Amino acid sequence: YSVDDDEKSLSSLEIIVPRDLADGFVNNKQESYKFKFQKIFDQEAKQDVVFDNIAKPVAECVLSGYNGTIFAYGQTGSGKTFTITGGAERYSDRGIIPRTLSYIFDQLQKDSSKVYTTHVSYLEIYNECGYDLLYPRHEASRLEDLPKVTVMEDPEQNIHLKNLSLQQATNEEEALNLLFLGDTNRMIAETPMNQASTRSHCIFTIHISSKEPGSATIRHSKLHLVDLAGSERVAKTGVGGHLLTEAKYINLSLHYLEQVIIALAEKNRSHIPYRNSMMTSVLRDSLGGNCMTTMIATLSVDKRNIDESISTCRFAQRVALIKNEAVLNEEIDPRLMIVQLKKEIQELKDELALVTGKQRTSELSQEELLQLDELIETFLEDNDPDSTLDVDADMRKIKYCFTHMKHLVNHSKISDKKLLSQCNSEENDTIKEAEEELKTLKELLQQRDNEINILVNMLKKEKKKAQDALFKFNVASAGSKLLEQSLSINFEECKSPSSCFSRLNEAKDFKSSIHRLPFLSRQTGGKMSLGCQEAFEVFKRDHADSITIEDNKHHLKQRFAEAKCLGEKLNEVRNKINHLKGVITQRHIQRAALAVSSPSEELNTLDPVEEELRMQIEAEKKSYKTMFNRLKGLKVEIEHLQLLMEKVKVKLQKDFETWWSEEATNGQV
């Protein structure tokens, strides 16, 4: 195969299949297949490049109020789950879902002009039945015991999913915890084509609501991130039993998806068979409605899979023929509309009362008079020239307001006259007192000069002592705080069988806590016998994921060491900034003392030494900010590595429980 990636035009993929001489001399099979796509990523493409080209534009549209969908299609083992969810071995292997969550919450933090609310849901479609992967009792139940998610339609043909929970996520950490919880509960199995084949379709949905403060308009948008199960040819894989049943349901649902795509691509088609399968019903808007949809076609370009690869390319080009019309999802907040309409009704009633002349004759109550006094006081204290005094269309209240304000004006005039007469008499007394104070101040001035010199010397000594004590305290406390905040992973505990199922110590670094998944065996009530522990030790040593755990531990140790080093450097920079500020303060005291003892014009000019010290402080602040941002990035990476380790440990525990139960059953037989 060859890829022609031209920036000006569409990228093209050419697959050449040489003719087989065994098919005979007369052979009219096609040798060259050419396909054009918007973007083609070769096998060496990194996850961040895929995210920037595919998911980032869709995420920006979702933040603006449009619906978006990204779904991956391809045969088993071609890399769909790796692209959508990511790998569990390295931080750089994060897929589209975690990177999109990180990007969305980063943008929400930067935008302070709106109030955002974020919810997530995780739907699994297994053998044409929907299940909620975020159901609270999912860990303690079998898949068949969970409430099934059903598709409901309203009169306007909008799709609603019954029994699918919406979990609120206020930050990136909560959303990633929900994602890892859902991934742990997914149905996977080993097939001849893939060691960890996902046997179900999964739809991870991010719901975003935004509203400007004081506005009655709300924007709703949702982003579907779909990981389809891989299609496979049963004749080629040779699976049977339970895996064969799963493969039939997977291929059938993908067949219905292709039928919908073909129907949408035809211009004169009146009926679209969305209801044939649950997946096409859920993705109804994404396939042919109000949504900006992107499809990722994954290919396994191998000689034995060449027919499936060509079929996938043809399907992707049929999808490209569909044109969706995405619109901005805005609606009026009904609660605010009710308040506005009630206010408008009251204003119309008041205007009608003024026009018809039907005024109230009863006297105002004491409570109403107190309210009017508060309104008048607030109105008079308000400095805004456009402020108004709103007392409704009631002539009793209007007359009372005029009377009260007239009383306040007269009272203020009388007070001004009394104040003026007092000022004239006090002015003469003030002149005499001022002359006496001037004489007293001259006598005190000389005394103050001597006192200032003494105080300056005392301040210098005390400042130096305080700085020395503060420096020693900061150095001693910074090391202890960093050690307390860093998550210490005891690598030697993993060598003894009794500690293999203990949790990682709770991470206290950077004041964040991570939700931990249960690692102990549920079947044994959280306890394991010594024999079972020894068996698990042997099982864990031979398991493929043990290398991944050790690598992640090594990476965590490196990140903690780097974070500790950065913390010490930050402490040094902070102490240096405090020292420079102390030097500037000392120079201020010296210049003030000189100005009192021998005033001159030179003391009023700028101090070049002080300017140089301020420039040093600014440079140190920039260095401090750079190291702090790096420390913040290390925090995110450490948290992600910890979650990856827990996910691998959960998988290791489940694999051992399955193996242990099978061995126990075989032993009984």
Automatic annotation (TrEMBL):
Residues 417-451 form a coiled coil. It is found in: Cytoplasm, Cytoskeleton. One of its GO terms (cellular component) is microtubule. GO terms for molecular function: ATP binding; microtubule binding; microtubule motor activity. InterPro entries: KIF6/9_C, Kinesin-like_fam, Kinesin_motor_CS, Kinesin_motor_dom, Kinesin_motor_dom_sf, P-loop_NTPase. Belongs to the TRAFAC class myosin-kinesin ATPase superfamily. Kinesin family. One of its GO terms (biological process) is microtubule-based movement. It comes from Eurypyga helias. This is Kinesin-like protein. Transmembrane segments: none annotated. Keywords: ATP-binding, Coiled coil, Cytoplasm, Cytoskeleton, Microtubule, Motor protein, Nucleotide-binding.
